[in-house]
Amino acid sequence: MPSTTAKKHSTSRAYWTGFADGTPFLLVVAPFAMLFGVLATEAGLNVLETLSFSAVVFAGAAQFTALQLMQENAPTAIVLASALAVNLRVAMYSASLTPWIGAAPLWQRALAAYFTVDQSYACSIVQFEKEPQMTVPQRMAYFSGVLSPIVPLWYICTVLGALVGTQIPDNWALDFALPITFLALVAPMLRTAAHVIAALVAIVVSLLSAGVPYSLGLIIAGTIGMMAGAQAEVWLERKRSGP
Amino acid sequence: MIDQTTLWTVIVGLGIGSYALRFAFLGIVGDRPMPAWLLRHLRYTAVAILPALVAPQVVWPAATGGDPDMPRMAAAAVTLVVGLLTKNVLAAILSGAGTLFGLLWVMG
Questions:
Q1: Residue B97: which of B78, B81, B83 has the closest Cα?
Q2: Under 8 Å between Cβ of A195 and B63
Q3: Transmembrane stretches, by residue range (chain B) (predicted)?
Q4: Beta carbons of A206 and B23 less than 8 Å apart
Q5: Is the pTM of this model over 0.80?
Q6: Over residues A53-63, mean pLDDT
Q7: Nearest Cβ partner of A80 from B17, B52, B101?
Q8: Alpha carbon distance B47, A93 (integer Å)
Q9: By CB distance 3.0 to 4.6 Å, which of A77, A92, A165, A184 could disulfide with B92?
Q10: Does A77 touch chain B (CB under 8 A)?
Q11: What are the pLDDT digits (tens) for A140-152?
C-alpha cells in the first residue's frame, strides 16, 4: 500500500520539521527554566516543590508572577487571579489552534491543551498557515515535534536551577532572547495589510496600557489588535469587490 | 517564607486554571464549526498578541531597570526587518542576536 507508506512518511517528516523548528527555543527555555528554579529556591521552595510547580502549571510567565506575589504575602485569591490573568493569552492560542487541530481525537487535544505554550503555538501557527494542505495527524505530529526538545529541557533546567541556585550572569543579556525569537517568528507572518495593522495597533495599545495591573494590558492590546485586523480585512475585501 | 498550604493551593489552583484556559477551545469546541466573525478575529491572534507581549520589553527592558536601551531597540528592529525581508526565522534570530551582542560589546 504505497499511499499508507507515503502518509506515514510525511507524518514523521512533519514531526522532524517541528523538532528542527523547536530546537532554537532551547536557548530561550533553558535559561528561563533555570531562572525559575533559582528564584523558587530563593523563595524557600525545595527541589520537589519547584519541579511540581513547573510540571503542574507549565506556564513560565504565570509561575514567575505567582512566585513574586506569594513572596509579597499577597492573598491566595489575588495570587491565583493575577497569574491566570498573565496566562489568559493561552486561551487565545487554544482558540486560534482549534480550526487547525480541532478534528484530532479528544485525548490528543487534551494533551495538546497542556502543551499549548508560547513556543509550540507560535511555531505551529506559522507552519499551519504556510502549508494549509497538511493533514490533522501531520499537524499534531508537527506540534509534538516542536515540543520534543523543549519539554524535557524545561523540567531538567528547572531542577538544575533549583540545585545550583546561582544567578545567570546579567551580562549575557538573556532577557532579550524571548523578544528576539518572537519578533523573528512574527515578521514573516505579516503577509497582508490587515496583518500589519493588527500588529501595529496591538503594539501601540500594549505600550499605552503597560501600566494596567496584572498584565491585563496584554489581553486588552491583543484583543484590540485582533479586532483591528479583522475589521481591516472586511474593509479591504469590500474595497476590492467594490466599484 | 511561603507557607505550605498557600504554596500547594496556588500550585494546584494554577495548574487547574491554566489547563482550563487551554482546554476551553481545543477540547470543548473541537471540530464544531465556529462563526465566520470569530475565525476572522482568530486569524490575527498571533500577529497581535506576540508583538504586544514583547513591545514593552523592547521599549522598557527589565534588564536596564526599565530605561530605554539602544542595543535592545536596534536588535529588535534588525530582527523585524530581516524577518520581513527574508521570511527566514533563523536568519532573523541570528541577525538580531548578532546586533544585540555586537552593540553591547562595542558600547562596553
A1: B78
A2: no
A3: 6-30, 42-63, 75-106
A4: no
A5: no
A6: 86
A7: B17
A8: 12
A9: A184
A10: no
A11: 999 999 999 999 9
